[in-house]
Design brief:
By secondary structure, the protein is mainly beta. Helix content is 0%, strand content 54%. The protein has no helices and 57 strands. Strands 2, 5, 6, 8, 9 and 10 form a 6-stranded mixed sheet that branches. Strands 13-11-18-15-16 form a 5-stranded mixed sheet, with no helix packed on it. Strands 21, 22, 24, 25 and 26 form a 5-stranded antiparallel sheet that branches.
Length: 655
């Protein structure tokens, strides 16, 4: 044998199957806590891991450690890990995850206060947990956050039926004092038949969360809270009130820090039971229309009643009277005719501090009475020698049955009816008036509802008797024509006489003069020749209010007056040594029967008649002159009843 040789050494490696060297542990956790399972294994690498819950692979759970960040009840169960290499697989022991039925609530508080309990609190699922919040002195709860959302400045908070993890945190702030409300007022009224007291106040604080309203009955009563209202509210209606009861009120502001001091106290007078059975009846007394109201008093402590009235269905009620306690009737004398009126009444209580009102009574209406006649006027006239007073007025009613005319004699007399006239009448002629008497008149309308008020009163000056026996006489005074009038005064109380004149029978009379009382004559000096004048006279009465006239006297005319001759001229002529004065003139009249020639010697002489010539003669020769003498001449026309004025004067000097 030659030798031996040795090969290289060959290594025999035997792969090791995986083996669990550390088993996962059982876990008992609260909901929300993290669960971590860990396994350790030996064996030939590479090792792979697959966690299972029960027999189901967990997706993505392929490492030696498996974690659940926040466990829930559904995560409870058995967990195991399958370790595998090239040799085989091995499964760890099952680790049991038990999830307690509880949740954690974490409570925290900022500075200047506390929350109880605080910190993480474990709470059974479905149960409740109360947290109480307390601020330090001079501080208040600013805000409470539950799961990051504000629930307000509450003093406690309760989690109910807990089914999740929660947080609650509180912050605090320094107190701002609450100011008391100001100027509290209380007013009692009825609204749609419901009694209530309306409160109002001034909000004097900036940080209240609301207001507390307290009430007591009578002065000696005890205050008790009756309501709360929210921040910035400034009024409240107390509808839980009883009539005939005195109430007192006060209000304070409130927030989480507490209450302000109280407002002033406001008392309200007793609420009153409303009157009932209101009636309205129209009545006319001596021509004055009135509406009589009556009602039942149902309240015990009213100080009076307020009467309100409106005109027509759509009118607005307005107060017309305020009358005393325990009164049950009222007379409305200020109602105008031709209008439908509606009435209502309420009881009122008033003292120096308080006022209250009952609800209104039922509504009562009054049937309208006729309207009073308007613009009554009266005038006196004579018709065929009969004195009468003519009345007229304006109709002011729509549904009158008729009109009553009343008259009295003298200012102190008593009115009495003298006529009853039909509907729509607007005038009346009083033919029963007696001369020399002062009369007063008034008129009213009426229908089935009553009488209207009276019209205005009118008085008529005394009716006067006409003058009698008017006469005229034509006369010349110093060559001027005039007509002298005379008559008999037949009235007793005239203030004068009116003289009227017309020219020609068909002319129109016009006043030419007025003379005083008791005068019985007048001279008309404003007359023209050759004109026929007609005259009449009536008596007149005038005072500051009235004027009346008598009937006219008889008519009297004046004999036509004559126009005076004109252009009188005198010429001296010597015939055989005899001096003559030849007179000539212009004839201006139409119906003279002749002319009268007058002469005087010297300027200071006196005129005397020297000759009469016939109608239409226009000249005359004076042969009875003396030498060395100056003569003055004048001429006038004449007829059987009158003379004309004188002509101009003519002068002749005989040498």
């Amino acid at each position: 044998m030659v030798t031996s040789v040795t090969s290289n050494a060959a290594t025999l490696s035997v792969n090791q199957a995986p083996a669990i060297t550390a088993q996962p542990s059982n876990l008992t956790l609260n909901p929300g806590q993290q669960a971590t399972f860990t396994v350790a294994a030996s064996g030939t690498n590479p090792l792979t891991y697959q966690w299972q819950k029960g027999t189901t692979n967990i997706t993505g759970a392929t490492s030696a450690t498996y974690s659940i960040a926040s466990v829930a009840a559904a995560d409870a169960g058995s967990y195991k890990c399958v370790v595998t290499n090239m040799v085989t697989s091995v499964t760890s022991n099952a680790a049991i995850l038990t999830v307690n039925n509880r949740y954690t609530i974490t409570a925290s508080a900022g500075e200047n206060g506390s929350i109880t309990p605080s910190g993480p609190i474990s709470v059974n699922a479905g149960s409740s947990q109360v947290f109480t919040i307390t601020s330090k002195t001079n501080y208040h709860i600013a805000d409470v956050l539950v799961d990051g959302a504000s629930v307000g400045a509450v003093q406690s908070y309760t989690f109910t039926n807990v089914a999740a993890i929660h947080t609650i945190s509180v912050t605090f702030a320094m107190d701002t004092p609450l100011n008391a409300p100001l100027n509290l007022t209380a007013t009692a009224k009825y609204t749609k038949g419901i009694a209530q007291v309306n409160l109002a106040w001034v909000d004097n604080s900036k940080n209240e969360t609301g207001f507390i309203i307290e009430r007591k009955i009578d002065v000696a009563g005890a205050y008790a809270q009756i309501a709360t209202v929210g921040a910035d509210v400034k009024k409240y209606a107390d509808t839980a009130v009883i009539p005939d009861t005195m109430y007192y009120y006060r209000v304070c502001a409130s927030n989480s820090t507490g209450k302000s001091s109280y407002s002033n106290e406001a008392g309200v007078a007793p609420l009153l039971n409303s009157p009932s059975d209101l009636t309205a009846a129209v009545k006319s007394t001596k021509g004055v229309v009135q509406i009589n109201l009556a009602w039942k008093d149902n309240s015990k402590c009213e100080t009076g009643f307020i009467i309100e009235r409106k005109t027509g269905v759509t009118g607005a009620y307005a107060q017309i009277a305020n009358i005393g306690a325990n009164t049950k009737k009222y007379i409305d004398t200020a109602a105008a005719p031709n209008a439908m009126y509606y009435y209502r009444v309420c009881a009122v209580y008033k003292n120096t501090v308080d006022s209250s009102y009952s609800d209104y009574s039922n509504e009562a209406s009054a049937t309208p009475a006729p309207g009073a006649p308007l613009n009554l006027s009266a005038s006196v006239k004579y018709t065929k020698g009969t004195a009468q007073v003519s009345l007229s007025w304006k109709e002011n009613s729509k549904d009158e049955t008729g009109f009553i005319v009343e008259r009295k004699t003298g200012a102190e007399g008593a009115y009495a009816q003298i006529a009853n006239l039909g509907a729509n009448t607007k005038k009346y002629l009083d033919t029963t008036a007696i001369p020399d008497t002062m009369y007063y008149y008034r008129v009213y309308s009426y229908n089935t509802s009553g009488n209207s008020p009276y019209s205005n009163e009118v008085s008529i000056a005394p009716l006067l008797n006409a003058p009698l026996n008017l006469t005229t006489a034509v006369k010349y005074v110093k060559g001027n024509a005039q007509v002298n009038l005379g008559w008999k005064d037949n009235s007793k109380c005239e203030t004068g006489f009116v003289i009227e004149r017309k020219t020609e029978a068909g002319g129109t009379y016009a006043p030419i003069a007025t003379v005083g009382a008791n005068i019985k004559k007048y001279i008309d000096a404003a007359v023209a020749p050759d004109t026929t004048y007609y005259y009449r006279v009536c008596a007149v009465y005038k005072d500051t209010l009235n004027t009346s006239y008598s009937d006219y006297s008889n008519e009297a005319s004046a004999t036509p007056l004559l126009n005076a001759p004109s252009n009188l001229a005198a010429a001296v002529k010597m015939t055989r040594g005899v001096a003559k004065v030849n007179l000539t003139w212009k004839d201006n009249s139409k119906n003279e029967i002749g002319f009268i020639i007058e002469r005087k010697t010297g300027a200071a002489g006196i005129y005397s008649r020297i000759a009469t010539v016939g109608a239409n003669i226009k000249k005359y020769t004076d042969t009875s002159t003396a030498r060395n003498t100056k003569y003055y001449y004048r001429v006038y026309a004449h007829d059987d009843s009158a003379d004309s004025a004188y002509s101009n004067e003519a002068i002749a000097a005989v040498q």
